[in-house]
Amino acid sequence: MKKLLLLLMWCAPVFAYSQGFQVNLGGQKQIGMGHTGTGLLQDGASVFFNPGAIAMLPQNSVSAGISPLWFKSGFNPTGTNDKYFTKDRVATPIQAYGVWGPKDARWKFGMGIYTPFGGLTDWGTDWVGKYAVQSLNLKAIFFQPTLSYKLTNALSVGAGFVYNHASVDLRRAIPLADASGNPGQAKLEGTGKGYGWNAGIFLKTKTFTAGLDFRSKVDTKVKNGDAIFTVPTSLAASFPQPNTFNAGIPLPSTLSLGLGFYPTNKWTVAFDANFVGWSSYQALAFDYASNTSALADTYSPRNYKNAFALRTGAEYKYTDKLALRFGGGYAATPVKDGYVTPEVPDANRYYLTGGIGYKLAKRLDIDLSFEFEHLFTRTQTNIETQLSGTFHSNVYIPGVALSYHW
Amino acid sequence: MKSIKNYLYISAGLLLLASCKPTVETPALTAGTADFSRYISVGNSLTAGYADGGLYLEGQLNSYPSIIAKQMAQVGGGAFTQPLFTTDQANGSGYVKLTGFTATGSPITAPVTTNLAVRGTATIPGFGTVILYTKYSGEINNYGVPGIKLQQITYAPYGNLNGYYERMLAGNAGTNTTAYIDFVTAKPFTFFTDWLGNNDALGYATSGGAADALTPKDQFAGLYNLSIGKLTAGGAKGAVATIPDVTSVPYFTTVTVGAILAGVQKANPSVAALYINARSSADIATTTYAPRAATAADLVVLTFPTTKIGQPVAVPGVGNVPYGLTPYAPIENQYVLDANEITLTKDYVDDYNKTIKASAASKGLAVFDAFTFLNNLKANGMVIDGVSVNSNFISGGIFSLDGVHLTPRGYAIVANEFIKAINKQYGSSIPKANVSAYNGVKFP
């Protein structure tokens, strides 16, 4: 029980970034190998990486993992020597998979629950950019039932339907001070949903494996979220309460190509390339149910551009029980100059990962991973808020998963 | 037990992760070629931190010189002491505060009359009554004196005529003989800001051209050069500011001829025009006034009681006529800065600013061009750290409830403009102040 409590200490139900606000924490083995897996046959995480590979998996399995994530950002406003840091909040992307099919059947069924997008940035209520944003907590949890079919011994395909349950909590200060000098606050909270799909093809030859996967855009709509405004009493009429908002966020598509090579029976070497259709994210708009002359709908251009990521990793089977993994990669930012915001202080980034897999019992594995991401320092003046300064960000992501297979 | 220990280790490791912050490098700090060890600020109400129609502790604490000094302290600036009112007398001279809005959205204000620092009055022969404030004795770095004109800085008895200056001096009203320029330069200093001269034009303008007078251009030039000469005599470096266009402040742009007329026409559509008593010529020598129909080029002051419009006025030989709606009872001169008065004032302000820039250039001083800055602000507004500001009354966030002086946010912006000018001139790197930490008008 104590163990459980200690572990739970770190698990607040929140999620964070890896590129823009995309999280790429699909599975612990794959994280250890630098987020490669589209062209590999590792485990149930293929539901996420490449549904086409599921039918080729040698066993049925269920697995669950978690990757507590610390996104650490610092900000130095231009022309000052002030420093601001994000609060210590931990996001907890999760991964849970099950794949099942009759022995020797050509098909397998899969189910995945994972968190491919999200963001948790909390700059506090009293930092220089508080009128741009105080905190954002965006979560998206994808549920994906999947079917995979082996066409030949070398080629299999698979596809899944995606249901996304999202929630958003965005807070910013309003520059209207009350009699004590405290500024107002806008708090936008809501939940939403979206639909999409994930389909892939997997090829297995004697010398290499390859996969091609496409995860569709998931247009996610938040409807009738709560728009809570705290303003001085004399201005209450301008910010009617209760009020609601609608907003939409198009979570982008991802096209992935992956390759796996097997130089010896102990080594696996993998490469993945992703092309993310971020250009679908053009604006963040909030449509309020009640508008006044002081409270107009907002439309903030984002103008993200499509972006790529290159990833590589390797696994070395030290013994039958122990596997060692490492990897790394580079992800280009989808955020153009002038559009970087403190809620997503994105920049080009590189990352390094490592991992260990250990066979606890015949049917039970534990996988551990650790990832460090470094975002290149980025000096920006946002065109909408004129918030100007330099962002420095690092991400630390340990992770653990258990899987049972038969 | 052992495994619990392991989990504790894991927890400790995760805590360690939680505590590591990215390295944030900040620019190197330097005073450049300037020396900020003793900074003094010279000027009028804007320098003193006057706001909402009064000088009070909160305004003083948010004065632009105090904000500059706080930032200067990071590049070798010394202590900066202001002649603050005490917390018991925090409301100083008294001021106005916003208490709400009418149904049509007009602001309602109320005077603050408690916890004042008024110690009495003095009657100065040949001048009149001067309100006296609790004396301040002690170190002074901020020499801002509300109301002072450049014209008055060499006038020895001035310490008897201005209660804000009198409170800084040792002697009581009636006995003072220290000219302002001598008072501020008495103790050595290494750096100064000088924003004098506003009242030499603003005094005339805010009275609608009815009272006060524009300081003659040659007198302004002579006194300005003299003051800069004295301020730089000891080798001090400094920054000066130009004088804003008086029409860039909400005191003149909030109550408009068009808005008053529209209000009248709602009740009485046959009314075609407002009438004002206007200056006949923009020539300084011609001082005749005559009634004429008002146009959008005439500016009505913020303090004009609009309820006067349409009230019956008895005019001999004509009978009762409605105020402001006929040439027989025009809106009085003190409520309107008419087009000719504006032209005249602008001409003087332009000339003053030429003097200021030339004088600064001759001594290699930094210049904050407040004239250009506030005109740009009026025309375009600006966005700072997510806050949209402009020159509008109350909603603009920069001007306080008197429509002339600034809010803490406005003073912080001014401080940053001074800092920008100083850094540019002297190669220093005084860090900018965080504007978002300063408020605009407070709402009940």
UniProtKB/TrEMBL annotation, chain A:
<dbReference type="GO" id="GO:0009279">
    <property type="term" value="C:cell outer membrane"/>
</dbReference>
<dbReference type="Pfam" id="PF03349">
    <property type="entry name" value="Toluene_X"/>
</dbReference>
<comment type="similarity">
    <text>Belongs to the OmpP1/FadL family.</text>
</comment>
<feature type="signal peptide">
    <location>
        <begin position="1"/>
        <end position="16"/>
    </location>
</feature>
<dbReference type="GO" id="GO:0015483">
    <property type="term" value="F:long-chain fatty acid transporting porin activity"/>
</dbReference>
<keyword id="KW-1134">Transmembrane beta strand</keyword>
<keyword id="KW-0732">Signal</keyword>
<keyword id="KW-0812">Transmembrane</keyword>
<keyword id="KW-0472">Membrane</keyword>
<dbReference type="InterPro" id="IPR005017">
    <property type="entry name" value="OMPP1/FadL/TodX"/>
</dbReference>
<protein>
    <submittedName>
        <fullName>Long-chain fatty acid transporter</fullName>
    </submittedName>
</protein>
<keyword id="KW-0998">Cell outer membrane</keyword>
UniProtKB/TrEMBL annotation, chain B:
<protein>
    <submittedName>
        <fullName>G-D-S-L family lipolytic protein</fullName>
    </submittedName>
</protein>
<dbReference type="InterPro" id="IPR036514">
    <property type="entry name" value="SGNH_hydro_sf"/>
</dbReference>
<dbReference type="GO" id="GO:0016788">
    <property type="term" value="F:hydrolase activity, acting on ester bonds"/>
</dbReference>
